[in-house]
Design brief:
About 50% of the residues lie in helices and about 0% in strands. It is an all-alpha fold. Helix 13 crosses helix 15 and helix 13 runs antiparallel to helix 21. The longest helix has 29 residues.
Length: about 500
């Protein structure tokens, strides 16, 4: 059974109106490139200031992408793209919208709508209705999240990105043709978190009603570890042939962050910023469109503020922000501890609870606050977070001595934060990044690092299913379900012990 373009008439008209195909000549495209480059030369470092408005491009369809990316293309492209993507949970995410799915069927009956016609469901579980439909699914082509969903509508760049000159264009030049630079950890994290946390501007909103009707809770999201767990359908420049690496070096190609743990820290700061942005944007919609976005929307807050064990003592009760009044909700908590480590690593304010104090004051005064109050306090908070992001983006791959010192210090910071942690999802974020850092750092012998990685993985449940989307007759449980089971029986004393590191060896 396929997911075709069955949408409500209003939704279809709205989406199609927003995705009008852009017809432009090569001259216009070139002028766009020149204009963006000119403005970018005078623009602040990415992550600061306002973004340039992006033109609208038409959609070409995943089947065109697969024609090339399923086969060998010299030194640049191999079959890894579709060989991995075919098993990715994203490519099959549309299956959750089908009414023969028991969970979906129960939700539809409770909520009174069809998932394939609900814009908030469609926005995260499949590709845009403006994209050409997939008439027949194959072993490598599925109707879930598509290539263009993440990489951008391809009308202007489809042919251009086949040219050799495309390889080393900078981000601004590629963006002028509509391609999203997902090698930029900020853009990648924003792209992922638009679904894994929420984004009002693209209708990616999970409501409390949806949770109550049976939608799985969104687990804390760590960008780099999730990418590895799902399986990389790409190769980084330093994983390609020596020839390609040489060409990249000669071209001064720098769009990657220095290492996995650095990208993870940047992602954690983006998650913190998106948490603030989600509340701000929903409050703004609640003011302008109160019927469509009634206030408060409980799902944008931390679930454990209300849903915790009714027992004393309970780690869920004791894990609240020190500024929160008992019984009052707070913003989502899982990004905070890792973001605090990232802020300190960037030489900025590391006390995230203090950074979010204005929200605590607003939420303490009245449960869930008021839209007007929350709208007034977002701008300064995001500015501080953006400064930290810019600081972390300054270190480039190749400076081994700097990276050694940073990885060593990062592991010490993660270890200390993990041993203080009072919240399971926050500890899991720290654990994922500590595993990445331990694999990179050579301060401890390999057997010590392997033992610590195994301990963190077991205690915090860091492994993802393999393949990423288990299909019958597999008995593997989906990741969200194993996460809930683990969290319900966790002992925080065991978590704290898992983060304890032995004394480091002298620097080699």
């Amino acid at each position: 059974m396929l997911v075709r373009r069955s949408r409500s008439a209003d939704l279809k008209a709205a989406v199609e109106a927003c995705a009008v195909r852009m017809t432009c000549t090569a001259f216009v495209a070139c002028m766009l490139v020149m204009l963006v480059m000119l403005v970018m030369q005078q623009a602040p470092v990415f992550g600061q200031g306002e973004r340039l408005p992006q033109p609208t491009f038409g959609w070409k369809g995943a089947d065109l992408c697969i024609r090339c990316h399923r086969s060998e293309q010299g030194d640049w492209v191999d079959t890894a793209t579709t060989a991995t993507w075919r098993h990715d949970a994203h490519s099959r995410s549309h299956l959750a919208l089908l009414s023969d799915n028991p969970r979906t069927q129960a939700m539809e009956q409770a909520l009174g709508f069809k998932a394939v016609e609900q814009k908030s469901c469609v926005a995260c579980h499949t590709h845009s209705s403006a994209e050409p439909p997939i008439d027949e699914e194959t072993s490598v082509l599925h109707a879930g999240i598509s290539c263009e969903t993440c990489h951008g509508a391809a009308e202007a760049y489809l042919e251009k990105h086949m040219e050799k000159s495309w390889r080393f264009l900078d981000s601004a030049e590629k963006a002028a043709f509509g391609m999203h630079d997902l090698r930029n950890p900020v853009l990648k994290a924003e792209n992922c978190l638009s679904c894994h946390l929420g984004d009002v501007s693209t209708d990616r909103i999970i409501t409390h009603q949806m949770y109550a009707a049976g939608h799985p809770p969104l687990a804390g999201f760590e960008m780099e570890s999730s990418s590895k767990g799902m399986g990389q359908h790409w190769k980084r420049v330093w994983e390609k042939s020596e020839k390609v690496q040489g060409l990249a070096a000669a071209a001064g190609y720098h769009t990657e962050a220095a290492c996995e743990s650095q990208r993870a820290l940047i992602g954690s700061l983006v998650a913190l910023k998106k948490t603030v942005t989600l509340v701000h944007d929903y409050a703004q919609e609640a003011v302008s469109l109160p019927e469509a976005h009634p206030w408060p929307e409980l799902a944008i807050y931390d679930c454990q503020s209300c849903h915790h064990e009714l027992q004393v003592p309970s780690w869920r009760q004791s894990s609240a922000s020190r500024h929160a009044v008992p019984g009052r909700p707070s913003l989502v908590r899982w990004p905070r501890q890792l973001a605090g480590v990232a802020m300190a690593h960037a030489g900025r304010q590391a006390d995230v609870d203090a950074l979010l104090l204005p929200y605590s004051v607003g939420l303490n005064g009245r449960p869930f606050g008021t839209p007007d109050t929350l709208l007034q306090i977002s701008e300064d908070t995001n500015g501080i977070i953006e400064e930290a992001i810019a600081g972390l983006q300054g270190v480039r791959r190749g400076d081994a001595s700097v990276l050694w010192e940073q990885e060593h210090e990062l592991i010490a910071s993660l270890s200390a934060a993990g041993r203080r942690s009072g919240e399971f999802e926050a500890a899991r974020q720290l654990g994922w990044v500590m595993v990445l850092a331990l694999r990179q750092c050579r301060t401890w012998p390999e057997d010590v690092r392997a033992q610590k990685i195994a301990e963190l993985t077991a205690v915090l449940g860091l492994d993802f299913p393999e393949p990423a989307y288990p299909l019958p007759p597999s008995e593997e449980k989906p990741f969200w379900q194993t996460s809930l089971t683990l969290a319900s029986g966790v002992r925080m004393e065991q978590v704290h012990q898992a983060f304890l590191m032995p004394a480091a060896l002298p620097k080699p």
